[in-house]
What does this fold into?
Amino acid sequence: MNTTTTISIQIPSLESFTPILGTKASDAIHSNAINIIGFCYDGSTSFRPGARFAPNAIRVASVGMETYSPYADLDMEDYAIFDLGNLPFHPSRRELSANIFDEAVKHLNIRETKAKFLTLGGEHSISFTPISLYLRDYHDLLLIHLDAHTDLRDGYLGDEHSHAAVIKRVHERMQPTQSLLQYGIRSGMKEEFLFMKKHNTLCASLNNLLDKIENTPATRPIYLTLDLDFFDPAYCPGTGTPEPGGENFHSFLKIIKALQAKNLVGADVVELAPNIDPTANSNSFAAIIVREILLAMV
It folds into this structure.
């Protein structure tokens, strides 16, 4: 039986949301399991807001979906995966949700307890909070960043924790034994591309990324942060800052298959803006993406 660590946060009542993809609703963090938490913040969005609605939109889109993945040949019903709902949030104060999360996990060593997290954004600035937890407890963490944008600015619009600066803030916290790989990047400032070149973080091709994953020791912990504008807008138009020339679903599956053979200990999926895509197809696409990531983490 999985043990649990009760968290002192006000999770919405279990009747107020539908757990994603048939997972179990819970008000506690579970060890030896995957814990899903929604972080409904988009206060640093620089173009079109709406990502704060994504966690529940993904949950709703998943209602009619199969828990079995023919790509992974795995079924979510066979694994311990819990949906904790959404953190309480304020539309313009990211730190409120972040502080609640930090307080909940400050005495929890996720490496020792094998408590895994998949965080649903929200825009990309929310990733700083869960990634910081993983950097704290996994001294040898490999962070894989899939995105259309570098997210390496020193700050944007006066906010040093903007979604345009999140990977820069994360990189500043990394130890020499921790490393960063970036792929899909096709937009950013010249200085950001120089930063990637200096620190050798950018993978030039899909095969380059797959080779680096393959050469990663099987026990090394990996965290995946996925901005949905990594994909070409033809696949996922419901995102605030789309960029042409993105990847397709089958390329993503190659990455996930490679990660499934390794030690994927955590992930986040960010920047879905449901209000931008009136067809709601982006919500369904995101739900499938979340399913494949979860099954790579089991």
Summary: The chain has one domain: 4-297. Residues 4-297 form a domain with the Arginase; Chain A fold (CATH 3.40.800.10). The longest strand covers residues 263-270. The chain has a mean pLDDT of 91.
